[in-house]
Amino acid sequence: MNGAPASRRAAALADRIEECAELLAAFAEGLSEAEWRTPVPEGRKDGRSVGVIVHHVASVYPVEINLAQSVAAAKPVTDITWDVVAELNAEHTEEHEEISKAAALELLLWNSRAAASAVRGFTDEELDQAAPFSLNSDAPVTAQFVIEDHALRHSWHHLARIRKALRR
After folding, report:
1. Confidence check: pLDDT of 98 > 90
2. Does position 6 have pLDDT exceeding 80, yes or no?
3. Which of 26-30, 49-53, 92-96, 133-137 has the lowest mean pLDDT?
4. % of the chain residues with pLDDT over 90
């Protein structure tokens, strides 16, 4: 392969992953220290801070891509549940409460670019492959769906929540 994406669809997905990561990074870059530490209500008693959420988005790109690759290989994803996700998020919050803006943004850009690069390697056949996916009640979803609903949507989802919390 000459460095070209395996498919136009994969390239478009990868471009959108990078686009939102860059939007989230640009938004976060302009935040004050107080805004960076602001809790974001998410159905919890105490919301995670903006900084923890930005770091969270950055840190899960590899996991999200791995899940999509599993589905693309027709391997069912059976061990990831919303309870597991909640537990991992709680652990992440404890471990990264004091994350610096610079460190979180560096990880966000690095991991989003790596995720986009991996997505560019998907073929149309891989994007269309479906397998049972435990986060969606074991419904057989496609690898493209996993990419769109996780690696791509995740940044957009949290950016919207952060903007709402900061009223920006």
Report:
1. no
2. no
3. 92-96
4. 77
Q: At what angle do helices 101-120 and 8-29 cross, to 10 degrees?
A: 170
How is the chain split into domains, by residue range? 8-166
To the question of domain 8-166 being in CATH 1.20.1560.10, the answer is: no
φ and ψ at residue 40, rounded to 5 degrees: -110, 115
Dihedral sign, Cα of residue 78, residue 108, residue 157, residue 37:
positive
Q: Strands 139-142 and 48-49: what pairing? A: unpaired
Enumerate residues 6+ apart whose C-beta is below 8 A from 14: 5, 115, 116, 117, 119, 120
Separation of alpha carbons 18 and 20, rounded Å = 6
Question: Is the distance from CB of 64 to CB of 119 less than 8 angstroms?
Answer: no
Instruction: Specify the 3-state DSSP secondary structure of 5.
Output: coil
Which pLDDT band, with edges at 50, 70 and 90, does 43 fall under?
A: low
Q: What is the torsion angle, in degrees rounded to the nearest 10, for the CA atoms of residue 112, residue 84, residue 37 and residue 25? A: 10
**Predicted local distance difference test score (pLDDT) of residue 163:** 94
